[in-house]
Amino acid sequence: MAESTETVADLAIDLSDVRKVYRGGVEALRGIKMDARRGEVFGLLGPNGAGKSTLVKIMLTVVRATKASGTILGSPIGTKSVLGKVGYLPEKHRFPEYLTGRQAIEFAGAMCRVPRATCRARTDELLELVGMVDWADRKVSMYSKGMMQRVGIAAAMVNDPELVVLDEPTDGVDPLGRRDIRDVLVRIREQGVCVFLNSHLLSELEMVCDRVAILVQGRVAAQGTIDELTRESRRYEITLGGEPPPWCSEGDLRVDTDLEGRSVLVAPKVEVDGLQTLIDRLRKDEIDIASIRPVRESLEDLFMRYVKDPRTGRHLPPGAERKTPPTAGSPRP
Fold it and tell me: Which of 50, 83, 172, 190 is the most exposed place for a label (fewest CB within 10 A)?
């Protein structure tokens, strides 16, 4: 019992059944079950129209759910008082151009009712955290996209949140800026905050997220660490220095050819002990081994697998499914 209570206390987000049906029978969310822990970076990904924005808006009480079972920071979804413990950076956020970076962060603090003295001290800490001390007193009109995103993240953190929701935090930022923002997210995570990322940049999510959830047509198609979700795709590729012996096509083994025309023995679902057995057999047959490398699906490969219709092999259409045919004039989600 004690172990179960501790686990629940560690969850910043614990959704058991979240549904949203718009007029016209459009099911934007169809029974979302998802959890994100304190002190982790959690990535939410999915194609356009999958329901990501709707889910975030329900979590932030911007949109009313048709049904919402679960908790945010230990309180039922929709509890307004919880918002004081949540930070939010919307996609394509804007600050008044006449404000400096420092003033933009302090303005966000005032909106969150952070006491003035606390807000000023917190702003200094956050400027240091996001690497904007030298630019703190320059107007945001002079900022690059990456600098604007850094100040936006600081503004989302000014109320010292336990959960921070970031919508496309690296969108439009150059590679150097994206790396810097990833470093900032890691530092936020180290403070015990749950960082909830909504992004289309799968390579970015793969580098920074502890766990991810893939949302497809209003349902969670998969959730877990990237290692857990790609376990079935793990394999070893052994590049050979000669012709492969006949047994290399036994069972799950197969032989491919690399760009240089060399034979590559592909061994799926093989653990370290099994790999050693393969190496011993190759050596016994006097086959040179040029290289050995472990391979698994990338997050992009995983994503593409889940957005395909298993019946047809085609990509699923964007948007949610409809319970009933839409009526004339029905709004789109």
Answer: 190
Per-domain boundaries in the chain: 2-229, 235-295
Collapsing DSSP to helix, strand or coil, 262 comes out as: coil
Residue 320 CA: distances (Å) to CA of 56, 59, 135, 220: 16, 19, 43, 13
> Where does the pLDDT of residue 333 fall: very low under 50, low under 70, confident under 90, or very high at 90 and above?
very low
Q: How far is CA 191 from CA 10, 63, 165, 195, in A?
A: 14, 29, 15, 10
Q: Are 34 and 214 in contact (CB under 8 A)?
A: no
pLDDT greater at residue 99 or residue 310: 99
Band of residue 13 on the pLDDT scale cut at 50, 70, 90: very high
- Alpha helices, DSSP H, located in the chain: 2-9, 52-59, 101-111, 116-129, 145-157, 175-190, 202-208, 226-229, 272-284, 299-306
Same CATH fold assignment for domains 2-229 and 235-295: no
- Fold classified for 235-295: Alpha-Beta Plaits (3.30.70)
264's CB contacts (< 8 A; 6+ apart) are 237, 238, 239, 240, 255, 256, 257, 258
**Nearest-CA neighbor of 180 among 194, 169, 192?**
169
Q: What is the pLDDT of residues 101-137, one digit of tens each?
A: 999 999 999 999 999 999 999 999 999 989 899 999 9
* CATH 3.40.309.10 describes domain 2-229: no
Q: Would you place residue 319 in the very low, low, confident or very high pLDDT band (cuts 50, 70, 90)?
A: low
Decide: 139 and 100 in contact? Cβ < 8 Å: yes
